[in-house]
Protein backbone atom coordinates (compact mmCIF):
# COMPACT_ATOMS: atom_id res chain seq x y z
CA UNK A 1 0.00 0.00 0.00
CA UNK A 2 1.28 3.47 -0.82
CA UNK A 3 0.00 6.22 1.40
CA UNK A 4 -1.09 9.35 -0.40
CA UNK A 5 -0.33 12.52 1.48
CA UNK A 6 -0.34 15.97 -0.08
CA UNK A 7 -1.20 18.70 2.41
CA UNK A 8 0.94 21.47 0.92
CA UNK A 9 2.78 22.58 -2.19
CA UNK A 10 6.15 22.66 -0.47
CA UNK A 11 6.41 19.91 2.15
CA UNK A 12 9.36 17.62 1.55
CA UNK A 13 8.59 15.54 -1.50
CA UNK A 14 8.80 11.78 -0.94
CA UNK A 15 7.06 10.17 -3.91
CA UNK A 16 6.17 11.57 -7.30
CA UNK A 17 4.63 10.37 -10.53
CA UNK A 18 6.23 11.24 -13.88
CA UNK A 19 5.83 10.23 -17.48
CA UNK A 20 9.00 10.00 -19.55
CA UNK A 21 8.04 11.44 -22.94
CA UNK A 22 7.81 8.70 -25.54
CA UNK A 23 6.96 8.13 -29.17
CA UNK A 24 3.83 10.23 -28.82
CA UNK A 25 6.11 13.27 -29.31
CA UNK A 26 7.34 11.82 -32.59
CA UNK A 27 3.74 11.74 -33.69
CA UNK A 28 3.34 15.49 -33.54
CA UNK A 29 3.09 16.93 -37.04
CA UNK A 30 2.79 20.63 -37.98
CA UNK A 31 -0.67 20.13 -39.37
CA UNK A 32 -2.20 19.00 -36.09
CA UNK A 33 0.11 20.78 -33.69
CA UNK A 34 -2.30 23.34 -32.28
CA UNK A 35 -5.06 20.84 -31.94
CA UNK A 36 -2.67 18.73 -29.86
CA UNK A 37 -1.87 21.77 -27.64
CA UNK A 38 1.77 22.13 -28.71
CA UNK A 39 3.46 25.20 -30.14
CA UNK A 40 6.40 23.39 -31.67
CA UNK A 41 7.77 19.90 -32.15
CA UNK A 42 10.22 18.81 -29.46
CA UNK A 43 13.16 16.61 -30.44
CA UNK A 44 12.37 13.42 -28.57
CA UNK A 45 15.93 12.28 -27.84
CA UNK A 46 16.88 15.56 -26.18
CA UNK A 47 13.49 15.86 -24.45
CA UNK A 48 14.09 12.44 -22.90
CA UNK A 49 17.58 13.47 -21.80
CA UNK A 50 16.14 16.58 -20.17
CA UNK A 51 13.44 14.51 -18.52
CA UNK A 52 16.02 11.99 -17.27
CA UNK A 53 17.88 14.90 -15.71
CA UNK A 54 14.65 15.95 -13.98
CA UNK A 55 14.26 12.42 -12.61
CA UNK A 56 17.87 12.37 -11.46
CA UNK A 57 17.51 15.67 -9.59
CA UNK A 58 14.48 14.23 -7.81
CA UNK A 59 16.24 10.99 -6.94
CA UNK A 60 19.34 12.84 -5.76
CA UNK A 61 17.00 14.52 -3.28
CA UNK A 62 15.63 11.20 -2.01
CA UNK A 63 12.38 11.45 -3.93
CA UNK A 64 11.03 8.13 -5.16
CA UNK A 65 9.98 8.38 -8.78
CA UNK A 66 7.17 6.32 -10.30
CA UNK A 67 6.47 6.17 -14.02
CA UNK A 68 2.92 6.29 -15.30
CA UNK A 69 3.33 3.38 -17.72
CA UNK A 70 4.59 1.13 -14.90
CA UNK A 71 1.67 1.87 -12.62
CA UNK A 72 -0.81 1.38 -15.44
CA UNK A 73 0.78 -1.93 -16.47
CA UNK A 74 0.73 -3.13 -12.87
CA UNK A 75 -2.97 -2.26 -12.74
CA UNK A 76 -3.67 -4.54 -15.68
CA UNK A 77 -2.20 -7.75 -14.32
CA UNK A 78 -5.60 -9.45 -14.39
CA UNK A 79 -6.36 -10.60 -17.95
CA UNK A 80 -9.98 -9.57 -17.78
CA UNK A 81 -9.07 -6.07 -16.63
CA UNK A 82 -6.49 -5.83 -19.42
CA UNK A 83 -9.09 -6.80 -22.03
CA UNK A 84 -11.55 -4.34 -20.58
CA UNK A 85 -8.87 -1.64 -20.79
CA UNK A 86 -8.21 -2.44 -24.46
CA UNK A 87 -11.93 -2.28 -25.23
CA UNK A 88 -12.33 1.03 -23.43
CA UNK A 89 -9.27 2.47 -25.10
CA UNK A 90 -10.51 1.52 -28.58
CA UNK A 91 -13.92 2.87 -27.80
CA UNK A 92 -12.72 6.20 -26.43
CA UNK A 93 -10.28 6.56 -29.33
CA UNK A 94 -13.42 6.96 -31.42
CA UNK A 95 -12.93 3.85 -33.54
CA UNK A 96 -16.37 2.86 -34.78
CA UNK A 97 -15.82 0.49 -37.68
CA UNK A 98 -16.15 -3.11 -36.51
CA UNK A 99 -13.33 -4.49 -38.62
CA UNK A 100 -10.96 -1.74 -37.60
CA UNK A 101 -11.83 -2.45 -34.00
CA UNK A 102 -11.06 -6.10 -34.54
CA UNK A 103 -7.69 -5.28 -36.13
CA UNK A 104 -6.78 -3.02 -33.26
CA UNK A 105 -7.90 -5.47 -30.61
CA UNK A 106 -5.85 -8.22 -32.24
CA UNK A 107 -2.79 -5.97 -32.55
CA UNK A 108 -2.88 -4.69 -28.98
CA UNK A 109 -3.50 -8.15 -27.54
CA UNK A 110 -0.32 -9.53 -29.10
CA UNK A 111 1.86 -7.02 -27.20
CA UNK A 112 3.11 -7.49 -23.68
CA UNK A 113 1.25 -5.31 -21.21
CA UNK A 114 3.81 -2.51 -20.93
CA UNK A 115 4.29 -2.32 -24.70
CA UNK A 116 0.54 -2.28 -25.17
CA UNK A 117 0.15 0.57 -22.68
CA UNK A 118 2.90 2.58 -24.41
CA UNK A 119 1.27 1.95 -27.75
CA UNK A 120 -2.03 3.38 -26.49
CA UNK A 121 -0.13 6.47 -25.33
CA UNK A 122 1.92 7.09 -28.45
CA UNK A 123 -0.94 6.79 -30.92
CA UNK A 124 -1.24 4.13 -33.60
CA UNK A 125 -0.55 5.24 -37.16
CA UNK A 126 -2.42 3.57 -39.98
CA UNK A 127 0.90 2.26 -41.29
CA UNK A 128 1.42 0.25 -38.12
CA UNK A 129 -1.33 -2.16 -38.98
CA UNK A 130 0.48 -3.00 -42.18
CA UNK A 131 -0.64 -5.88 -44.27
CA UNK A 132 -4.17 -5.39 -43.09
CA UNK A 133 -6.36 -3.69 -45.63
CA UNK A 134 -7.81 -0.48 -44.28
CA UNK A 135 -11.46 -1.09 -44.56
CA UNK A 136 -13.41 1.80 -43.16
CA UNK A 137 -14.45 4.66 -45.38
CA UNK A 138 -12.97 7.09 -42.86
CA UNK A 139 -9.54 5.45 -42.98
CA UNK A 140 -9.56 5.42 -46.75
CA UNK A 141 -10.56 8.97 -47.49
CA UNK A 142 -8.98 11.01 -44.74
CA UNK A 143 -5.37 12.13 -44.87
CA UNK A 144 -5.23 11.91 -41.07
CA UNK A 145 -2.37 9.45 -40.41
CA UNK A 146 -3.57 7.90 -37.14
CA UNK A 147 -6.06 5.24 -36.23
CA UNK A 148 -5.80 6.28 -32.61
CA UNK A 149 -4.52 9.74 -31.70
CA UNK A 150 -1.23 10.31 -29.89
CA UNK A 151 -1.33 11.74 -26.35
CA UNK A 152 1.67 14.09 -26.42
CA UNK A 153 0.61 15.96 -23.29
CA UNK A 154 1.02 12.93 -21.06
CA UNK A 155 4.33 14.12 -19.67
CA UNK A 156 2.34 16.81 -17.88
CA UNK A 157 1.29 14.34 -15.20
CA UNK A 158 -0.01 17.22 -13.08
CA UNK A 159 -3.18 17.55 -15.08
CA UNK A 160 -5.20 14.35 -15.62
CA UNK A 161 -5.49 13.44 -11.96
CA UNK A 162 -4.60 15.22 -8.76
CA UNK A 163 -3.65 14.01 -5.35
CA UNK A 164 -5.31 16.14 -2.70
CA UNK A 165 -4.65 15.20 0.95
CA UNK A 166 -5.10 11.43 1.13
CA UNK A 167 -7.29 11.05 -1.95
CA UNK A 168 -7.46 11.67 -5.65
CA UNK A 169 -9.44 13.70 -8.11
CA UNK A 170 -9.73 11.89 -11.43
CA UNK A 171 -10.13 14.95 -13.53
CA UNK A 172 -12.44 15.70 -16.39
CA UNK A 173 -10.28 17.34 -19.04
CA UNK A 174 -11.45 20.40 -20.90
CA UNK A 175 -10.23 19.46 -24.34
CA UNK A 176 -11.07 16.34 -26.22
CA UNK A 177 -7.44 15.77 -27.02
CA UNK A 178 -6.53 15.26 -23.35
CA UNK A 179 -9.65 13.43 -22.28
CA UNK A 180 -8.32 9.92 -22.78
CA UNK A 181 -5.33 10.64 -20.53
CA UNK A 182 -7.56 10.16 -17.52
CA UNK A 183 -8.29 6.52 -18.40
CA UNK A 184 -4.86 5.68 -16.97
CA UNK A 185 -5.57 7.31 -13.63
CA UNK A 186 -8.96 5.67 -13.46
CA UNK A 187 -7.40 2.21 -13.89
CA UNK A 188 -4.60 2.90 -11.40
CA UNK A 189 -7.04 4.06 -8.75
CA UNK A 190 -9.47 1.24 -9.44
CA UNK A 191 -7.18 -1.75 -9.88
CA UNK A 192 -3.61 -1.10 -8.71
CA UNK A 193 -3.02 -2.97 -5.44
CA UNK A 194 -1.28 0.05 -3.90
CA UNK A 195 -3.75 2.66 -5.12
CA UNK A 196 -7.22 1.15 -5.28
CA UNK A 197 -9.57 2.01 -2.44
CA UNK A 198 -8.26 5.56 -2.04
CA UNK A 199 -10.72 8.38 -1.48
CA UNK A 200 -11.96 9.83 -4.75
CA UNK A 201 -13.04 13.45 -4.87
CA UNK A 202 -13.97 13.74 -8.54
CA UNK A 203 -14.64 11.41 -11.45
CA UNK A 204 -13.76 11.68 -15.11
CA UNK A 205 -17.40 11.06 -15.97
CA UNK A 206 -18.52 14.38 -14.44
CA UNK A 207 -19.58 17.01 -16.99
CA UNK A 208 -17.71 20.18 -15.92
CA UNK A 209 -13.99 20.13 -16.53
CA UNK A 210 -11.25 20.52 -13.98
CA UNK A 211 -7.50 20.07 -14.55
CA UNK A 212 -4.72 19.46 -12.04
CA UNK A 213 -2.69 22.49 -13.10
CA UNK A 214 -5.44 24.61 -11.56
CA UNK A 215 -5.39 22.91 -8.16
CA UNK A 216 -2.94 24.12 -5.50
CA UNK A 217 -3.09 22.47 -2.09
CA UNK A 218 -1.90 25.23 0.24
CA UNK A 219 -2.57 23.54 3.57
CA UNK A 220 -4.87 21.00 5.19
CA UNK A 221 -7.40 23.81 5.46
CA UNK A 222 -6.93 25.74 2.22
CA UNK A 223 -7.00 24.69 -1.43
CA UNK A 224 -6.70 27.27 -4.24
CA UNK A 225 -8.32 26.50 -7.60
CA UNK A 226 -8.08 28.58 -10.78
CA UNK A 227 -11.25 29.37 -12.71
CA UNK A 228 -9.42 29.15 -15.99
CA UNK A 229 -9.62 28.20 -19.63
CA UNK A 230 -9.66 24.61 -18.40
CA UNK A 231 -11.47 24.60 -15.05
CA UNK A 232 -15.13 25.38 -14.86
CA UNK A 233 -16.77 27.00 -11.80
CA UNK A 234 -19.33 24.16 -11.60
CA UNK A 235 -16.48 21.68 -11.24
CA UNK A 236 -15.05 23.76 -8.40
CA UNK A 237 -18.37 23.60 -6.55
CA UNK A 238 -18.58 19.85 -7.03
CA UNK A 239 -15.07 19.15 -5.83
CA UNK A 240 -15.44 21.62 -2.95
CA UNK A 241 -18.49 19.68 -1.73
CA UNK A 242 -16.75 16.37 -1.87
CA UNK A 243 -13.60 17.73 -0.19
CA UNK A 244 -15.63 19.33 2.61
CA UNK A 245 -17.37 16.02 3.15
CA UNK A 246 -14.28 13.96 3.71
CA UNK A 247 -11.42 16.17 4.85
CA UNK A 248 -10.50 18.96 7.23
CA UNK A 249 -10.65 21.52 4.42
CA UNK A 250 -12.10 24.91 5.41
CA UNK A 251 -11.64 27.08 2.33
CA UNK A 252 -11.54 26.66 -1.40
CA UNK A 253 -10.10 29.86 -2.85
CA UNK A 254 -11.43 30.13 -6.41
CA UNK A 255 -9.38 32.61 -8.44
CA UNK A 256 -10.87 34.06 -11.59
CA UNK A 257 -8.32 34.10 -14.38
CA UNK A 258 -8.34 35.25 -17.99
CA UNK A 259 -9.45 32.36 -20.16
CA UNK A 260 -6.47 32.20 -22.45
CA UNK A 261 -3.79 29.78 -23.47
CA UNK A 262 -0.82 31.68 -22.05
CA UNK A 263 -2.44 31.33 -18.62
CA UNK A 264 -4.11 27.97 -19.22
CA UNK A 265 -3.77 26.83 -15.59
CA UNK A 266 -3.30 28.55 -12.25
CA UNK A 267 0.16 26.99 -11.92
CA UNK A 268 1.33 28.79 -15.08
CA UNK A 269 1.06 32.08 -13.17
CA UNK A 270 1.47 31.07 -9.56
CA UNK A 271 3.49 28.49 -7.63
CA UNK A 272 4.57 28.27 -4.04
CA UNK A 273 8.33 28.28 -3.44
CA UNK A 274 8.54 28.35 0.34
CA UNK A 275 6.23 28.12 3.33
CA UNK A 276 5.25 31.77 3.00
CA UNK A 277 6.67 32.76 -0.40
CA UNK A 278 4.98 32.50 -3.78
CA UNK A 279 6.17 33.21 -7.31
CA UNK A 280 3.60 35.02 -9.42
CA UNK A 281 3.21 36.59 -12.85
CA UNK A 282 3.12 40.40 -12.54
CA UNK A 283 -0.40 40.70 -14.00
CA UNK A 284 -1.68 38.86 -10.93
CA UNK A 285 -0.13 41.05 -8.26
CA UNK A 286 -3.09 43.42 -8.47
CA UNK A 287 -6.54 42.94 -6.98
CA UNK A 288 -8.32 39.95 -8.48
CA UNK A 289 -11.79 38.50 -8.36
CA UNK A 290 -11.49 35.86 -5.71
CA UNK A 291 -14.27 33.66 -4.33
CA UNK A 292 -13.93 32.12 -0.88
CA UNK A 293 -15.96 28.95 -0.67
CA UNK A 294 -16.85 27.44 2.71
CA UNK A 295 -19.12 24.72 4.05
CA UNK A 296 -22.72 25.75 4.42
CA UNK A 297 -24.74 24.92 7.49
CA UNK A 298 -26.79 22.29 5.63
CA UNK A 299 -25.27 19.25 4.00
CA UNK A 300 -24.28 19.91 0.41
CA UNK A 301 -24.63 23.68 0.79
CA UNK A 302 -21.78 26.09 0.13
CA UNK A 303 -21.21 29.64 1.29
CA UNK A 304 -19.53 31.70 -1.42
CA UNK A 305 -18.05 35.08 -0.62
CA UNK A 306 -16.73 37.39 -3.33
CA UNK A 307 -13.61 39.49 -2.70
CA UNK A 308 -11.82 41.93 -4.88
CA UNK A 309 -8.46 41.59 -3.25
CA UNK A 310 -4.85 40.68 -3.89
CA UNK A 311 -3.69 37.11 -3.58
CA UNK A 312 -1.16 38.34 -1.07
CA UNK A 313 -3.86 39.61 1.29
CA UNK A 314 -6.15 36.64 0.91
CA UNK A 315 -3.37 34.09 1.33
CA UNK A 316 -1.84 35.99 4.28
CA UNK A 317 -5.18 35.93 6.04
CA UNK A 318 -6.03 32.30 5.34
CA UNK A 319 -2.53 30.93 5.95
CA UNK A 320 -2.23 33.11 9.07
CA UNK A 321 1.15 34.52 8.16
CA UNK A 322 2.53 37.35 6.04
CA UNK A 323 3.02 36.10 2.49
CA UNK A 324 5.63 37.44 0.09
CA UNK A 325 4.90 37.50 -3.62
CA UNK A 326 7.96 37.28 -5.88
CA UNK A 327 7.26 38.53 -9.41
CA UNK A 328 8.23 36.10 -12.18
CA UNK A 329 10.65 37.96 -14.51
CA UNK A 330 11.23 40.55 -11.75
CA UNK A 331 9.65 43.90 -12.51
CA UNK A 332 10.71 43.93 -16.13
CA UNK A 333 7.60 43.85 -18.31
CA UNK A 334 9.38 42.16 -21.21
CA UNK A 335 11.13 39.51 -19.13
CA UNK A 336 7.98 38.79 -17.11
CA UNK A 337 5.93 37.84 -20.12
CA UNK A 338 8.77 35.97 -21.81
CA UNK A 339 9.71 33.95 -18.77
CA UNK A 340 6.13 33.20 -17.76
CA UNK A 341 5.51 31.89 -21.31
CA UNK A 342 8.44 29.53 -20.83
CA UNK A 343 7.16 28.40 -17.45
CA UNK A 344 9.31 30.61 -15.27
CA UNK A 345 6.47 30.76 -12.74
CA UNK A 346 5.99 26.99 -12.83
CA UNK A 347 8.40 25.71 -10.20
CA UNK A 348 8.31 22.42 -8.33
CA UNK A 349 9.17 22.69 -4.64
CA UNK A 350 10.92 19.61 -3.31
CA UNK A 351 11.05 21.05 0.18
CA UNK A 352 10.30 24.50 1.61
CA UNK A 353 12.59 26.97 -0.15
CA UNK A 354 14.10 24.41 -2.55
CA UNK A 355 12.67 24.41 -6.07
CA UNK A 356 13.34 22.83 -9.46
CA UNK A 357 13.15 25.41 -12.27
CA UNK A 358 13.84 25.63 -16.00
CA UNK A 359 17.35 27.00 -16.43
CA UNK A 360 16.28 29.24 -19.31
CA UNK A 361 14.38 31.68 -17.03
CA UNK A 362 17.49 33.40 -15.81
CA UNK A 363 15.95 36.61 -14.52
CA UNK A 364 13.33 34.86 -12.42
CA UNK A 365 15.82 32.30 -11.15
CA UNK A 366 18.25 34.99 -10.08
CA UNK A 367 15.53 36.86 -8.24
CA UNK A 368 14.45 33.67 -6.47
CA UNK A 369 18.02 33.21 -5.25
CA UNK A 370 18.13 36.78 -4.02
CA UNK A 371 14.96 36.04 -2.07
CA UNK A 372 16.73 33.16 -0.33
CA UNK A 373 15.33 30.28 -2.38
CA UNK A 374 17.60 27.40 -3.38
CA UNK A 375 17.14 27.03 -7.11
CA UNK A 376 17.93 23.78 -8.91
CA UNK A 377 17.94 24.46 -12.65
CA UNK A 378 17.23 21.81 -15.28
CA UNK A 379 17.67 21.84 -19.06
CA UNK A 380 14.49 22.77 -20.88
CA UNK A 381 15.06 23.49 -24.56
CA UNK A 382 12.79 20.70 -25.74
CA UNK A 383 10.45 20.04 -22.82
CA UNK A 384 9.34 23.67 -22.70
CA UNK A 385 7.90 23.42 -26.22
CA UNK A 386 4.88 21.68 -24.71
CA UNK A 387 4.14 24.78 -22.53
CA UNK A 388 4.65 23.23 -19.14
CA UNK A 389 7.38 23.35 -16.50
CA UNK A 390 8.59 21.29 -13.54
CA UNK A 391 5.29 21.53 -11.65
CA UNK A 392 3.25 20.51 -14.68
CA UNK A 393 5.56 17.56 -15.28
CA UNK A 394 5.09 16.04 -11.83
CA UNK A 395 2.28 14.69 -9.68
CA UNK A 396 3.30 14.44 -6.02
CA UNK A 397 1.91 11.33 -4.34
CA UNK A 398 3.44 11.94 -0.96
CA UNK A 399 4.93 14.94 0.80
CA UNK A 400 5.80 15.28 4.45
CA UNK A 401 3.47 17.68 6.21
CA UNK A 402 5.01 21.11 6.66
CA UNK A 403 6.22 21.29 10.21
CA UNK A 404 6.95 17.56 10.36
CA UNK A 405 10.65 18.17 9.75
CA UNK A 406 11.21 21.76 10.79
N1 LIG B 1 -0.20 22.14 -15.31
C1 LIG B 1 0.11 22.69 -16.44
N2 LIG B 1 0.30 24.01 -16.50
N3 LIG B 1 0.20 21.94 -17.54
C2 LIG B 1 0.62 22.39 -18.81
C3 LIG B 1 -0.02 21.61 -19.88
C4 LIG B 1 0.44 21.99 -21.26
C5 LIG B 1 -0.26 21.26 -22.34
N4 LIG B 1 0.35 21.44 -23.59
C6 LIG B 1 -1.72 21.68 -22.40
O1 LIG B 1 -2.01 22.62 -23.09
O2 LIG B 1 -2.58 21.10 -21.83
UniProtKB/TrEMBL annotation:
It comes from the Bacteria. GO terms for molecular function: arginine deiminase activity. Its main location: cytoplasm. Its EC number is 3.5.3.6. The active site is at 392 (amidino-cysteine intermediate). GO terms for cellular component: cytoplasm. NCBIfam families: arcA (TIGR01078), PRK01388.1 (NF002381). Belongs to the arginine deiminase family. This is Arginine deiminase. It comes from Acholeplasma brassicae. The lineage of its organism: Bacteria, Bacillati, Mycoplasmatota, Mollicutes, Acholeplasmatales. The gene is arcA.
